[in-house]
Amino acid sequence: MQPVFFGLTGLTLSADEVALFKAADPAGYILFKRNIDTPDQVRALTASLRDLAGRDVPILIDQEGGRVARLRPPHWPEFPPGEVFGRLYDKAPITAIEACRLNALALAALLRDLGINVDCLPLLDVRDPGGHDIIGDRSFGTEPLVVAALGKAVLDGFQAGGICGVVKHIPGHGRARADSHLELPVVTTSREELERDFIPFRRLANAPMAMTAHITYTALDAERCATLSPAVIDFIRQDIGFGGLLMSDDLGMHALGNPQSGGYPLGSNALADFGARALASIDAGCDIALHCSGDFAEMRSIVEAAPVMGAAAAARLAAAMAWMGSGDDTPVAEWAAARDALLALA
Protein backbone atom coordinates (compact mmCIF):
# COMPACT_ATOMS: atom_id res chain seq x y z
CA MET A 1 0.00 0.00 0.00
CA GLN A 2 1.25 3.49 -0.83
CA PRO A 3 0.64 6.38 1.59
CA VAL A 4 -1.52 8.47 -0.74
CA PHE A 5 -5.17 9.46 -1.11
CA PHE A 6 -6.02 10.07 -4.78
CA GLY A 7 -8.76 11.96 -6.56
CA LEU A 8 -10.45 10.62 -9.69
CA THR A 9 -11.07 12.13 -13.10
CA GLY A 10 -14.75 11.45 -13.69
CA LEU A 11 -17.94 9.57 -12.84
CA THR A 12 -16.40 6.12 -13.33
CA LEU A 13 -12.90 4.69 -13.16
CA SER A 14 -10.99 4.88 -16.43
CA ALA A 15 -8.94 1.94 -17.66
CA ASP A 16 -5.74 3.91 -16.96
CA GLU A 17 -6.85 4.66 -13.41
CA VAL A 18 -7.70 1.01 -12.78
CA ALA A 19 -4.24 -0.05 -13.96
CA LEU A 20 -2.43 2.63 -11.93
CA PHE A 21 -4.43 2.03 -8.77
CA LYS A 22 -3.97 -1.75 -9.02
CA ALA A 23 -0.22 -1.27 -9.26
CA ALA A 24 0.05 1.37 -6.53
CA ASP A 25 -2.64 0.23 -4.07
CA PRO A 26 -3.25 3.76 -2.71
CA ALA A 27 -4.40 4.03 0.89
CA GLY A 28 -7.65 5.69 -0.16
CA TYR A 29 -9.53 8.07 -2.45
CA ILE A 30 -11.32 11.43 -2.35
CA LEU A 31 -14.40 12.47 -4.34
CA PHE A 32 -15.26 15.87 -5.81
CA LYS A 33 -18.17 17.39 -7.72
CA ARG A 34 -16.75 16.06 -11.01
CA ASN A 35 -17.20 12.53 -9.64
CA ILE A 36 -20.82 13.00 -8.62
CA ASP A 37 -24.04 12.78 -10.64
CA THR A 38 -26.80 10.67 -9.09
CA PRO A 39 -27.02 8.57 -5.91
CA ASP A 40 -26.89 5.31 -7.87
CA GLN A 41 -23.84 6.49 -9.83
CA VAL A 42 -21.98 7.44 -6.61
CA ARG A 43 -22.83 4.10 -5.02
CA ALA A 44 -21.51 2.28 -8.09
CA LEU A 45 -18.31 4.35 -8.05
CA THR A 46 -17.59 3.75 -4.37
CA ALA A 47 -18.33 0.03 -4.78
CA SER A 48 -15.86 -0.11 -7.69
CA LEU A 49 -13.16 1.49 -5.53
CA ARG A 50 -13.71 -1.08 -2.79
CA ASP A 51 -13.71 -3.94 -5.28
CA LEU A 52 -10.46 -2.66 -6.74
CA ALA A 53 -8.80 -2.33 -3.33
CA GLY A 54 -10.18 -5.59 -1.98
CA ARG A 55 -10.83 -3.95 1.40
CA ASP A 56 -13.00 -1.32 3.07
CA VAL A 57 -10.86 1.46 1.65
CA PRO A 58 -11.22 5.04 2.98
CA ILE A 59 -13.32 7.15 0.59
CA LEU A 60 -13.20 10.82 1.53
CA ILE A 61 -15.26 13.87 0.66
CA ASP A 62 -15.40 17.54 1.67
CA GLN A 63 -19.02 17.81 2.74
CA GLU A 64 -18.93 20.64 5.25
CA GLY A 65 -22.16 22.49 4.47
CA GLY A 66 -22.56 25.99 3.13
CA ARG A 67 -20.20 26.81 0.27
CA VAL A 68 -18.05 23.70 0.70
CA ALA A 69 -20.29 20.82 -0.36
CA ARG A 70 -19.76 18.31 -3.16
CA LEU A 71 -23.22 16.77 -2.78
CA ARG A 72 -25.95 19.30 -3.58
CA PRO A 73 -29.62 19.52 -4.59
CA PRO A 74 -31.60 18.19 -6.31
CA HIS A 75 -30.36 14.80 -5.14
CA TRP A 76 -29.06 15.86 -1.72
CA PRO A 77 -30.14 18.48 0.83
CA GLU A 78 -28.27 21.64 1.73
CA PHE A 79 -26.42 21.73 5.06
CA PRO A 80 -25.57 24.86 7.08
CA PRO A 81 -22.00 26.16 7.44
CA GLY A 82 -20.21 26.06 10.79
CA GLU A 83 -20.91 29.71 11.57
CA VAL A 84 -24.63 28.92 12.03
CA PHE A 85 -23.86 26.69 15.01
CA GLY A 86 -21.42 29.22 16.43
CA ARG A 87 -24.07 31.93 16.39
CA LEU A 88 -26.53 29.61 18.13
CA TYR A 89 -23.88 28.79 20.75
CA ASP A 90 -23.77 32.47 21.73
CA LYS A 91 -27.45 32.22 22.69
CA ALA A 92 -27.86 28.62 23.84
CA PRO A 93 -24.64 26.57 24.14
CA ILE A 94 -26.21 23.19 24.97
CA THR A 95 -28.76 23.56 22.17
CA ALA A 96 -26.01 24.47 19.72
CA ILE A 97 -23.91 21.43 20.65
CA GLU A 98 -26.88 19.10 20.20
CA ALA A 99 -27.87 20.75 16.89
CA CYS A 100 -24.29 20.31 15.68
CA ARG A 101 -24.29 16.64 16.70
CA LEU A 102 -27.59 16.04 14.91
CA ASN A 103 -26.24 17.78 11.81
CA ALA A 104 -23.24 15.42 11.87
CA LEU A 105 -25.57 12.43 12.21
CA ALA A 106 -27.50 13.65 9.15
CA LEU A 107 -24.26 14.03 7.20
CA ALA A 108 -23.12 10.59 8.29
CA ALA A 109 -26.39 8.96 7.20
CA LEU A 110 -26.20 10.67 3.81
CA LEU A 111 -22.58 9.68 3.19
CA ARG A 112 -22.83 6.13 4.50
CA ASP A 113 -25.74 5.47 2.14
CA LEU A 114 -23.44 6.40 -0.76
CA GLY A 115 -20.50 4.28 0.38
CA ILE A 116 -18.46 7.28 1.56
CA ASN A 117 -16.89 6.71 4.96
CA VAL A 118 -14.70 9.78 5.70
CA ASP A 119 -15.81 13.43 5.82
CA CYS A 120 -13.11 16.13 5.96
CA LEU A 121 -14.78 17.83 8.91
CA PRO A 122 -14.77 19.33 11.57
CA LEU A 123 -12.93 22.49 10.70
CA LEU A 124 -11.20 23.63 13.92
CA ASP A 125 -9.72 26.85 12.55
CA VAL A 126 -10.42 29.76 14.92
CA ARG A 127 -11.72 32.66 12.87
CA ASP A 128 -9.59 35.79 12.95
CA PRO A 129 -10.99 39.22 12.03
CA GLY A 130 -8.09 39.86 9.64
CA GLY A 131 -8.04 36.35 8.19
CA HIS A 132 -8.72 35.54 4.55
CA ASP A 133 -12.32 34.61 3.79
CA ILE A 134 -11.26 31.17 2.54
CA ILE A 135 -12.12 30.18 6.14
CA GLY A 136 -14.82 32.77 6.89
CA ASP A 137 -18.21 31.25 7.69
CA ARG A 138 -16.78 27.74 7.52
CA SER A 139 -15.42 28.35 11.04
CA PHE A 140 -17.49 27.85 14.17
CA GLY A 141 -16.30 31.25 15.37
CA THR A 142 -13.67 33.35 17.07
CA GLU A 143 -13.61 31.66 20.50
CA PRO A 144 -11.30 28.62 20.72
CA LEU A 145 -13.31 26.80 23.38
CA VAL A 146 -16.51 27.21 21.38
CA VAL A 147 -14.77 25.86 18.28
CA ALA A 148 -13.52 22.89 20.32
CA ALA A 149 -16.95 22.15 21.82
CA LEU A 150 -18.73 22.23 18.46
CA GLY A 151 -15.92 20.28 16.81
CA LYS A 152 -16.32 17.56 19.43
CA ALA A 153 -20.06 17.47 18.70
CA VAL A 154 -19.28 16.83 15.03
CA LEU A 155 -16.90 13.99 15.87
CA ASP A 156 -19.41 12.48 18.29
CA GLY A 157 -22.12 12.56 15.61
CA PHE A 158 -19.83 11.08 12.99
CA GLN A 159 -18.68 8.28 15.27
CA ALA A 160 -22.24 7.36 16.20
CA GLY A 161 -23.31 7.70 12.57
CA GLY A 162 -20.66 5.34 11.23
CA ILE A 163 -18.20 7.60 9.42
CA CYS A 164 -14.74 8.95 10.22
CA GLY A 165 -14.02 12.66 10.82
CA VAL A 166 -10.94 14.70 9.92
CA VAL A 167 -9.96 17.74 11.99
CA LYS A 168 -8.46 20.53 9.91
CA HIS A 169 -6.34 22.52 9.20
CA ILE A 170 -3.83 21.64 11.90
CA PRO A 171 -2.21 23.61 13.56
CA GLY A 172 -4.67 26.37 12.49
CA HIS A 173 -5.62 28.29 9.35
CA GLY A 174 -7.64 31.16 10.79
CA ARG A 175 -4.84 33.78 10.83
CA ALA A 176 -3.81 33.23 7.20
CA ARG A 177 -4.09 36.42 5.15
CA ALA A 178 -4.03 34.50 1.85
CA ASP A 179 -5.81 31.55 0.24
CA SER A 180 -3.39 28.61 0.20
CA HIS A 181 -5.12 27.30 -2.92
CA LEU A 182 -3.58 30.30 -4.71
CA GLU A 183 -0.45 31.28 -2.77
CA LEU A 184 1.59 30.50 0.33
CA PRO A 185 0.27 32.21 3.48
CA VAL A 186 2.96 33.28 5.93
CA VAL A 187 1.82 33.82 9.52
CA THR A 188 4.27 35.90 11.57
CA THR A 189 2.27 35.82 14.80
CA SER A 190 4.27 35.08 17.95
CA ARG A 191 4.34 31.63 19.50
CA GLU A 192 2.42 32.92 22.52
CA GLU A 193 -0.37 34.40 20.41
CA LEU A 194 -0.60 31.25 18.29
CA GLU A 195 -1.52 29.28 21.38
CA ARG A 196 -5.09 30.52 20.92
CA ASP A 197 -5.24 28.77 17.53
CA PHE A 198 -3.89 25.51 18.94
CA ILE A 199 -6.51 25.14 21.69
CA PRO A 200 -9.20 23.32 19.63
CA PHE A 201 -6.63 20.89 18.25
CA ARG A 202 -5.26 20.19 21.72
CA ARG A 203 -8.80 19.59 23.02
CA LEU A 204 -9.51 17.13 20.18
CA ALA A 205 -6.05 15.57 19.93
CA ASN A 206 -7.68 12.13 20.08
CA ALA A 207 -9.46 12.69 16.73
CA PRO A 208 -8.97 9.80 14.28
CA MET A 209 -7.58 11.88 11.39
CA ALA A 210 -6.22 15.37 10.80
CA MET A 211 -5.26 17.45 7.76
CA THR A 212 -2.31 19.84 7.74
CA ALA A 213 -2.29 23.50 6.71
CA HIS A 214 -0.11 24.69 3.81
CA ILE A 215 0.99 27.69 5.86
CA THR A 216 4.38 28.90 7.07
CA TYR A 217 4.29 29.78 10.77
CA THR A 218 7.51 31.70 11.35
CA ALA A 219 7.32 31.08 15.11
CA LEU A 220 7.47 27.31 14.50
CA ASP A 221 9.56 27.07 11.31
CA ALA A 222 10.47 30.12 9.28
CA GLU A 223 11.83 28.04 6.38
CA ARG A 224 9.10 25.53 5.59
CA CYS A 225 5.32 25.43 5.54
CA ALA A 226 3.65 23.11 8.03
CA THR A 227 2.98 20.29 5.57
CA LEU A 228 6.68 20.08 4.62
CA SER A 229 8.19 20.89 8.02
CA PRO A 230 9.55 18.13 10.27
CA ALA A 231 9.61 20.73 13.08
CA VAL A 232 5.92 21.56 12.71
CA ILE A 233 4.89 17.91 12.32
CA ASP A 234 6.86 17.11 15.47
CA PHE A 235 5.07 20.01 17.20
CA ILE A 236 1.70 18.55 16.09
CA ARG A 237 2.65 15.15 17.45
CA GLN A 238 4.46 16.10 20.65
CA ASP A 239 3.13 19.49 21.75
CA ILE A 240 -0.44 19.40 20.48
CA GLY A 241 -0.47 15.67 21.18
CA PHE A 242 -2.24 14.49 18.05
CA GLY A 243 -1.73 10.74 17.65
CA GLY A 244 -4.07 9.88 14.78
CA LEU A 245 -3.59 9.65 11.04
CA LEU A 246 -2.06 12.85 9.66
CA MET A 247 -2.64 13.71 6.00
CA SER A 248 -1.41 16.63 3.98
CA ASP A 249 -3.77 19.13 2.46
CA ASP A 250 -4.00 18.85 -1.34
CA LEU A 251 -0.59 18.62 -3.02
CA GLY A 252 -1.98 20.56 -5.98
CA MET A 253 -2.54 23.79 -4.07
CA HIS A 254 -0.33 26.65 -5.22
CA ALA A 255 1.06 27.18 -1.71
CA LEU A 256 3.31 24.18 -2.40
CA GLY A 257 4.43 25.70 -5.71
CA ASN A 258 6.12 28.55 -3.87
CA PRO A 259 9.87 28.24 -3.21
CA GLN A 260 9.27 29.63 0.29
CA SER A 261 7.22 26.57 1.19
CA GLY A 262 10.51 24.69 1.58
CA GLY A 263 11.31 21.02 1.37
CA TYR A 264 12.83 21.02 -2.11
CA PRO A 265 16.46 20.75 -3.24
CA LEU A 266 17.89 24.16 -4.07
CA GLY A 267 18.30 24.69 -7.78
CA SER A 268 15.99 21.82 -8.68
CA ASN A 269 12.75 21.94 -10.65
CA ALA A 270 11.02 19.89 -7.97
CA LEU A 271 8.35 22.52 -7.40
CA ALA A 272 6.64 21.22 -10.52
CA ASP A 273 7.24 17.57 -9.59
CA PHE A 274 4.30 16.10 -7.72
CA GLY A 275 6.32 13.08 -6.75
CA ALA A 276 8.73 15.40 -4.95
CA ARG A 277 5.85 17.19 -3.24
CA ALA A 278 4.43 13.89 -1.99
CA LEU A 279 7.81 12.62 -0.83
CA ALA A 280 8.59 15.91 0.95
CA SER A 281 5.32 15.76 2.91
CA ILE A 282 5.88 12.13 3.90
CA ASP A 283 9.51 12.75 4.81
CA ALA A 284 8.35 15.64 7.01
CA GLY A 285 6.13 13.24 8.97
CA CYS A 286 2.74 13.17 7.26
CA ASP A 287 1.27 9.67 7.15
CA ILE A 288 -0.60 10.34 3.89
CA ALA A 289 -0.06 12.63 0.90
CA LEU A 290 -3.40 13.91 -0.46
CA HIS A 291 -3.69 14.56 -4.21
CA CYS A 292 -7.08 15.76 -5.36
CA SER A 293 -7.10 16.79 -9.03
CA GLY A 294 -7.23 13.35 -10.64
CA ASP A 295 -4.55 14.50 -13.11
CA PHE A 296 -3.12 11.22 -14.37
CA ALA A 297 0.43 12.43 -15.06
CA GLU A 298 0.67 13.94 -11.58
CA MET A 299 -0.63 10.74 -9.98
CA ARG A 300 1.85 8.65 -11.93
CA SER A 301 4.67 10.91 -10.71
CA ILE A 302 3.49 10.43 -7.13
CA VAL A 303 3.26 6.64 -7.53
CA GLU A 304 6.80 6.52 -8.88
CA ALA A 305 8.17 8.55 -5.95
CA ALA A 306 6.11 7.46 -2.95
CA PRO A 307 7.44 4.72 -0.66
CA VAL A 308 5.52 1.78 0.71
CA MET A 309 3.37 2.87 3.63
CA GLY A 310 5.21 2.41 6.92
CA ALA A 311 3.97 0.23 9.74
CA ALA A 312 3.20 3.14 12.10
CA ALA A 313 1.19 4.99 9.45
CA ALA A 314 -0.67 1.81 8.50
CA ALA A 315 -1.55 1.21 12.15
CA ARG A 316 -2.89 4.77 12.50
CA LEU A 317 -4.99 4.29 9.35
CA ALA A 318 -6.42 1.03 10.68
CA ALA A 319 -7.21 2.67 14.03
CA ALA A 320 -8.96 5.58 12.30
CA MET A 321 -11.15 3.25 10.26
CA ALA A 322 -11.95 1.22 13.38
CA TRP A 323 -12.90 4.42 15.29
CA MET A 324 -16.29 4.84 13.67
CA GLY A 325 -19.40 3.05 14.83
CA SER A 326 -21.76 1.05 12.66
CA GLY A 327 -24.43 3.75 12.33
CA ASP A 328 -28.14 2.99 12.06
CA ASP A 329 -30.99 3.24 9.58
CA THR A 330 -32.41 6.59 10.71
CA PRO A 331 -33.14 8.62 7.53
CA VAL A 332 -31.18 11.78 6.76
CA ALA A 333 -34.42 13.80 6.80
CA GLU A 334 -35.20 12.73 10.36
CA TRP A 335 -31.82 13.85 11.72
CA ALA A 336 -32.07 17.09 9.71
CA ALA A 337 -35.56 17.83 11.00
CA ALA A 338 -34.39 17.39 14.59
CA ARG A 339 -31.46 19.73 13.88
CA ASP A 340 -33.74 22.34 12.30
CA ALA A 341 -36.09 22.25 15.27
CA LEU A 342 -33.21 23.20 17.55
CA LEU A 343 -31.90 25.87 15.20
CA ALA A 344 -35.37 27.39 15.11
CA LEU A 345 -35.33 27.85 18.89
CA ALA A 346 -32.76 30.60 18.48
Describe the structure.
Keywords: Glycosidase, Hydrolase. It is an enzyme of class 3 (hydrolase). It catalyses: Hydrolysis of terminal non-reducing N-acetyl-D-hexosamine residues in N-acetyl-beta-D-hexosaminides. There is one protein chain. The chain is an alpha/beta fold and 346 residues long. The protein has one domain: Glycoside hydrolase, family 3, N-terminal domain (TIM Barrel, Alpha-Beta Barrel), CATH 3.20.20. The protein contains 11 helices and 12 strands. The strands form 3 sheets. Strands 1-2-3-6-7-9-11-12 form an 8-stranded parallel barrel, surrounded by 6 helices. The chain has a two-stranded antiparallel sheet with strand order 4-5. Helix 3 packs antiparallel against helix 4, helix 4 packs antiparallel against helix 11 and helix 5 packs parallel to helix 6. The radius of gyration is 19 Å and the shape is globular. About 2% of the residues have low confidence.
